[in-house]
Design a protein that fits this description.
Layout (H helix, E strand, L loop, with lengths): L3 E6 L2 E6 L2 H11 L3 H9 L5 H14 L6 H11 L1 H16 L15
Antiparallel strand pairs: 1-2
Helix pairs in contact: 1-3, 2-5, 3-4, 3-5
Amino acid sequence: KRGEMQLSLGDQTWTARVTMDGIARIETACNTGIVKILGRLTDGDLTTTEIVNILHPIIKGGGNDVTVKDISNAVWDAGLAEAMRAVGEILGAALSNGDDEGNAKKVVKG
């Protein structure tokens, strides 16, 4: 399915799914557009609350029955660096064009 990925935090792995609804929820929670959120991630300028609010709708979109508290606990257990990596995967999937049905492929042109 488009936007579907396996997302791991610590010893937990979920099937997660980036959807338009999930992107809208992320933008609302962070009070800015998805491209600016990626810039803030790159600058190390996301709060832990924003990290959780980015992870939650995407993990839930994969069909998982998880609460914000569940995700907060997973972020705490895994550590911020790993949670930021997971957010990077989500934002990358959100910005991809979907031609490959959600399976990330990188093309390096030289």
